[in-house]
Amino acid sequence: MTTDQELPELRSIKAPRHPGVSAAVCQAFSEAAEVCFARHHEPPRTSLQVTCVGVELVRSLKWSAPDETARRSWRNRDDATRDGAYVVSLAVVEHELGMVALSRADTRTGADYYVGKPGCHDLEEAFRLEVSGVDEGGPSDVRRRLKSKEDQAARGDSFLPAYASVVGFRQAAVLVSLVGGSTSE
Amino acid sequence: MGVPQVNDRHTTAQELSARAAASLAGGRTQEAQNLFAEAAEHEAAALAAVPTDRIRTRSVLAVSVASLLYKGARLDEAERAIFRYLAPGEFEGWADTQLRELLHVVSDERLLMNTLARRYTGENITVSLRGGEIGAGTGPLDLILEKATAFRSLLYRMAEWVGSYPLRHRGLPPKDLQNLVQARATEAAVGSYKLEIRLTEPVQPRLFEPPRVQPAELSDRLFNFLECLTAGTSKDLEDLVPQSDYRKALLQLTRNIVPGGKRLREVGIYRTKNDRLQSVYLTDALPPRIREVIPKQELPSEERKSYRGTLRALHLDRNWLELALEDGGHIKCNTVPDMLDDVVGPMVNRHVLVTGPLRQKRGKSRLLVSEIELLDEE
Predict the structure, then answer these.
(1) Which sequence spans correspond to the domains of chain B?
(2) What is the pTM of this model?
(3) Which residues of A touch B276 (CB under 8 A)?
(4) N or C: which end of chain B has fewer CB within 10 A?
(5) Where would I find the H helices in A50-178?
(6) Is the complex ipTM higher than 0.85?
(7) Which residues of chain B does A79 touch, with a Cβ-Cβ cutoff of 8 Å?
(8) In this complex, do B56 and A22 lie within 8 Å of one another by their Cβ atoms?
(9) Residue B173 predicted with pLDDT over 80
């Protein structure tokens, strides 16, 4: 198990390094993640148990305590958990897989993120990123959610290949798996 | 040559879309729709700039354009865009599937908007009938209609309770609630018959008088109530619905949905909340539980009696009903004033159990029916 490497700072997950994340979205998602972490952990660092495509790692994430405005803005726990999970997942995907957010595109019920190698000009070689957050649950909740996300990603009407990622905030865990492809693609 | 996928127009579209999502979360629906519609224009321009051989990229953007138009409530434009994208058959299969699904949703919502000036809220509840005479997407029409009507009655009552309306004894639900519930039959699943109940809201919200019932709250309260009934204590139920008249009404209407006999074995009620499937199962174990927790009005000293028979007649305005007994005789009973027509109405010509205290009047005793429930029909 590899340990103690630091993940990219959440507020750095934005264009131009991540062309699919605007500065405003990065700011909002980072705040959401900090609000979620602050419910269960103390800043400035939290050790995350990362399982990325079968490889188990421990990573350190630096974050700041959210101010009162951020806490008020993210009172909706479900929204905060979902959006916070996006930026944490992107940090893990960048660090472990060397991929960045290439694009965000709308779907009927939300939006999908597409990740790929830096410098990709389009989505022909991209992976869809299916993300979910778990605020309160334990390890089994996080694993169950990952299974559900994998099933969702594997549905016949989905863009494949895709990475399914689940962030457990209380558990300080991030699980990432690949659906419908191989990392060597 | 590099293909300008992440071109300026796409970036602008997605920035506008993110702002729209924030507006929506803040309850500024009109602003959100305008931003989504503006985003759709930029996304369409981005799509036009991507060469036709970049099929995956174009597939993603085509779905995005149609979705943004839909979210921007530009339903006519969304429909035209979807037809335009589907016609050449140039996109990947998953994109075609998503566009077709979107086309169904757009057509459905346009119909709702044009006919009722309402729109779907995304709060959906699935009612699944299983076992007995229910097959894969088929079932006896009378049974399906009965359960669908019973579930709709429960939802309306729940909505009236959530909206703090006074308890209605007769007639239809308040006018502003009547279009809240839209029922759709869904696709067949092995061994079940499913109904999807979709909750709606007005297209034009009233600024100075917001709706008394929010669909999300209605759905939450319904599941809280059913979960409490199936897994909680009597005290939990009393705490959840402190008003005894409403508690009784909700319990009686739930009883009308619960399966009994060989025709139907289970009713599953589902919704998706925060990416999780929430489910409640109603089985024949529930009627005794409902009998136990239903509020009773009689004095403990009064003699209680029950009759079984077919409900042949009732006149709730004059507080009486008549049963055809199993031995061939008929009996007329009084009813309590708060007997609800949506509880008793569906029981006419059905086998029922009536219970209540015996009351004396001019030397004769007559049953005052305070509870009535459907009996299992084989």
Answers:
(1) 3-116, 118-293, 304-374
(2) 0.64
(3) 148
(4) N
(5) 68-73, 77-97, 139-153
(6) yes
(7) 25
(8) no
(9) yes
